[in-house]
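Researcher: We plan to redesign the surface later, but first we want a full-length starting point. Tokens attached.
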């Protein structure tokens, strides 16, 4: 019924105005109005936000947001895909209302933007190399190597700090395209990247990426949605919906569907 309400509200409201309805309260503030929320996301992050073989935007973040949308009667979500490097600027300039792209908190982001309180995912980050690479066994073997990073990503911020603290002579290559990142690692133009177990498995299966994980997990980071700094009302609504979806098992089901593992226990205090 929610979808029907959303689709029908605009023409009904317009008809009422054109009919010259004398109810000033209705004309000034329709409590049944549905606010459209524009969500910035990506289309190349497998299992998170990507275009499937049928040309549909899908992935864990997308399907979870659809479930959240069903819970929230007064908002309607619309997705806009863009390069990862453009997401933060688009949110900062109010071109979008929120970001969904496997985002983790860091001081730089928290200074400018608002995160919701309830994490909706938590995934381990690892060093990833080509399957034929025997030189790199852990993060400490990246000294003197060439590492590919997504600009402004949490992995990039983490390794830039790690590199500085350990005085690594590591060349950093910032790559905005997911397929380009895979190709550069496969062809040896870069020696390592940072990624997640599910991404490695999917890339090896779907793109014959020939990747492998080395070393221990570096981070097990909570993942959140991001909002414009003052948009606490929307963030709180999303938090409430996520908690309901954790409690009713929807989050668990989606995690298993997209990642093969249930990380929901990591999301509960």
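Model: Full-length starting sequence:
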């Amino acid at each position: 019924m929610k979808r029907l309400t959303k689709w029908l509200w605009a023409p009904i409201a317009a008809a009422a105005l054109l009919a010259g309805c004398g109810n000033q309260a209705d004309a000034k503030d329709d409590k049944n109005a549905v606010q459209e929320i524009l969500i910035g996301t990506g289309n190349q992050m497998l299992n998170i936000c990507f275009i499937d073989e049928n040309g549909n935007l899908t992935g864990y973040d997308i399907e979870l947001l659809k479930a959240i949308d069903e819970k929230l009667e007064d908002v309607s979500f619309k997705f806009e895909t863009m390069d990862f490097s453009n997401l933060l600027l688009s949110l900062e300039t109010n071109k979008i209302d929120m970001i969904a792209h496997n985002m983790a908190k860091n001081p730089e982001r928290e200074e400018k933007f608002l995160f919701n309180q309830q994490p909706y995912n938590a995934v381990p980050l690892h060093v990833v190399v080509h399957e034929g690479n025997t030189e790199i066994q852990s993060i400490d073997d990246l000294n003197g190597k060439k590492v590919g990073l997504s600009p402004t990503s949490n992995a990039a911020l983490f390794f830039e700090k790690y590199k500085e603290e350990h005085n690594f002579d590591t060349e950093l290559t910032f790559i905005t395209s997911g397929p380009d990142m895979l190709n550069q690692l496969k062809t040896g133009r870069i020696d390592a990247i940072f990624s997640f177990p599910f991404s490695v498995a999917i890339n090896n299966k779907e793109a014959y990426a020939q990747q492998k994980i080395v070393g221990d997990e570096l981070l097990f980071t909570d993942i959140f949605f991001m909002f414009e700094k003052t948009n606490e009302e929307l963030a709180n609504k999303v938090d409430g919906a996520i908690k309901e979806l954790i409690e009713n098992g929807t989050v668990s089901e989606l995690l298993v569907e997209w990642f093969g593992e249930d990380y929901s226990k990591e999301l509960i205090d």
